[in-house]
Amino acid sequence: MSYNLLKGKRGIIFGALDENSIAWKTAEKVHEQGGTFVLTNAPVAMRMGAINELAEKTGSEIIPADATKIEDLENLVTKAQEILGGKLDFVLHSIGMSVNVRKGKHYTDQNYDWTQKGWDVSAVSFHKTMQTLYKQDAMNEWGSIVALTYMAAQRVFPDYNDMADNKAYLESIARSFGYFFGTEKKVRVNTISQSPTPTTAGQGVKGFDGFIKYADEMSALGNATADECADYTLTLFSDLTKKVTLQNLFHDGGFSNMGVSKKVMDRFIEE
Known about the structure:
About 45% of the residues lie in helices and about 15% in strands. It is of the alpha/beta class. The protein has a single domain (about 10-265), classed as Rossmann fold (3-Layer(aba) Sandwich). The longest helix has 24 residues, at about 110-135.
């Protein structure tokens, strides 16, 4: 249902790979709510996905960019403003990657070249993106910047590997850069800590299918879907959340505040 919640607002959406991705669903919903945007992803990711289909569906243009490269980001932010006709109101950072996870390297036996690559893609790219936006003064007042994270930044999930460290760093960047963006330019910066979600990236984590079922049974409301995360993201892009900033917002059906649920306990009670 459209409320024109984002009518007249302009932005950039990173990371729409395919219809399973949160960024893809967010783009669809931003379009439904009257917002306009450019889509971007790394050239290698674009070859893997179907981003052209999304661009056609939402009437959007695509600007390829490697988010670890400042020159690519500078080109992206400049061209986005030219295409959209002014400063930006929202940005979604929905990218992450761990080579150690992909290659099956255990957390206690990391290849540190791979670790650094994953850290750059998953976390430092968020700082680079905001630094570029900040230096170009590309955000309108009361604009909103959102990155997606996971609560492995706070708690141990053994198979999440070095992505847990990346997410912790990402959340710290959001707070630290968010302070300067807020005090100097009245721009909000938040992270959404989403339920485990069967995206292309999420399913690369060992034991993911078992964990997503466990999280669903632990959560008071069950897991939040990618579609529901997109809805939540819209609220942070809208003017209804103008004073929400520097927050890591859990969107997980209550999982983050659970000790144990009856469903899970019942599995350990002998008949």
